[in-house]
Amino acid sequence: MPDITTSLEEVARKHGVRLPAVVPLSKQERLRQLRWILDRKDVPHPIGSETARVYYERAASGVPFGIGSLSGQTVELGEYRNEQVYESLRLEDHLSWACLVADQQATKHAYACREYLLGEEMFEIGGATIPDYYLLNARIFQQTGWQLATVNMIIPAEVFFHCHSRKFFPVTTFMRPLETDYLPEPDVGHDVAGHVATFTIPQVAQVMNNHGLANDLIHREKELKLQTARSDHDIRRIHDEACELLLYAGRLYWFTVEFGLVMQNGTLKVFGAGILSSPGETRYSVTSPDSNRVLIDPRNDRDLLRLATTDYLISEYQKTYFVMKEFDALTTLTPQRILHIVHTAQRLPHHTWTELVPGDHVLNVGRAAMSANEKYYRYLAGQPLDECMQRTVERNLKMWSRSLEFADDELARAFMTALPPPPRGLFTDRISPIPCG
Ligand SMILES: [Fe+2]
To answer: Ligand 1 centre from 414 Cα, in Å?
Structure first.
């Protein structure tokens, strides 16, 4: 049987980590630091003395961290609620974190936006061990007003965005296995090493909160419609439509907060947490000739529709990255505007993750780039389609089978008329393209 310590030492060496340095702080030291943090008054959101006392006592008495309790808000996580039991984290977990952080050093200094690097310093998340959530939660709250809520798995979009509307960020407690660069599901590496530092970008924090508030608006709309539902069919349709809207709002989030790039001083930089939590994708997203890169301006409705109508897969590096002209434009993505865009997206044909669309400001044409109609030609020729193409073709065919009108919606009409007409062979007698006028 191989010696576990020897193999851990080998892994550590490979990533330039000293295994003896991977030692979590003692409880006494963590409490000493917590006391110091809670007493700080030189911060944007100082913590009141009574709140600080209760918070400290919970940590000192060994209650595991669950949901931050430094603001008047809380969230109900139900079956998804989880806790961080700091002492139960294993050496392998801490080493996996240390290796990820060490690997990130090489890429993030070259490719991450400058605000991310500042955030990492401010929240002290660049160390050799997994952060204690009591300490991390207090630091985040003091600087941004956001807090952590621990969850046990990928949670439904509705719960995820509900947390955002109350300025809680859901974090897992599971750390990826050693030697894993990219993980399709969130872990501590993604949630903390990826997301947390980006809270210092006020425009990103604001747009995250706005997504939460847009989720509330979609939910409220659904509740109102349900009051007038006359049949089970109506109820099902109303639920399905709300799910669809949430899905499209999720795409706006995905292509910005999770996988966004930004132009800074004429250079491409990464701010998306999904990218930053993978050292491999951090470099790939900026330099690889394989993926499309498209410049967008979130002030422009057409560009937002482009995001909301673009499907993607989570199992590999992205095939199209969207580059924000600047962070400031993200603040125009208000909850009402998100709602308007996703309602419009519901009525339009959608795109696959490899597609370039007329009107795109293309910075790089990836090797796998497709034109807007290629998915249909492949479908008609009976050629294999990836899951994203298959889903998009089926969804568009279903949409075209409804008789929709665009005369009342200038934005939808403009978006639609910019697309090339789909091949005629795609339609049977019962399915005809949506009229554009
Ligand atoms: Fe994420």
So the answer is: 32
What pairing do the DSSP bridges indicate for beta strands 168-171 and 147-150? Answer: parallel
Tens place of pLDDT for every residue, the chain, 437 residues? 446 666 899 999 999 999 999 999 999 999 999 999 999 999 999 999 999 999 999 999 999 999 999 998 899 999 999 999 999 999 999 999 999 999 988 899 999 999 999 898 899 998 899 999 999 999 999 999 999 999 998 899 889 999 999 999 999 999 999 988 777 788 999 999 989 989 889 899 999 999 999 999 999 999 999 999 989 999 999 999 999 999 999 999 999 999 999 999 999 999 999 999 889 999 999 999 999 999 999 999 999 999 999 999 998 999 999 999 999 999 999 999 999 999 999 989 999 999 999 999 999 999 989 999 999 999 999 999 999 999 999 999 988 877 666 667 888 888 888 888 888 888 764 444 444 33
Write down the residue that tokens 């997994």 correspond to: 130
Where among 147, 166, 200 does a domain terminate? 200
Query: Does 14 map to a domain?
Result: no
Neighbours of ion ligand 1 (CB under 5 A): 273
Domain that holds residue 389: 204-426
To 5 degrees, how large is the angle CA 80–CA 172–CA 309? 80
In a domain, 431, yes or no: no
Rounded to the nearest angstrom, the distance between the alpha carbon of 169 and the centre of ligand 1 is 10
Residue 402 counted as domain residue: yes
How far is the centre of ligand 1, averaged over its atoms, from the C-alpha of 52 (Å)? 29
Burial class (CB in 10 A: 0-12, 13-18, 19+), 200: buried
Q: How many other C-beta atoms are found inside a 10 Å radius of the C-beta of residue 28?
A: 9
CA of 256 from ligand 1 middle (Å) equals 11
Token pair for residue 81? 């609620």
Last-in-domain residue among 200, 218, 238? 200
Q: How far, in Å, is the centroid of ligand 1 from the Cα of 59?
A: 27
Q: Same structural domain for residues 88 and 234?
A: no
- DSSP secondary structure letter of residue 197: G
Q: Name the residue with tokens 């909160």.
A: 209
pTM, entire model: 0.90
CA–CA gap between residue 280 and residue 295 (Å, rounded): 22
What amino acid occupies position 394? E
Question: In terms of domains, do 114 and 243 share one?
Answer: no
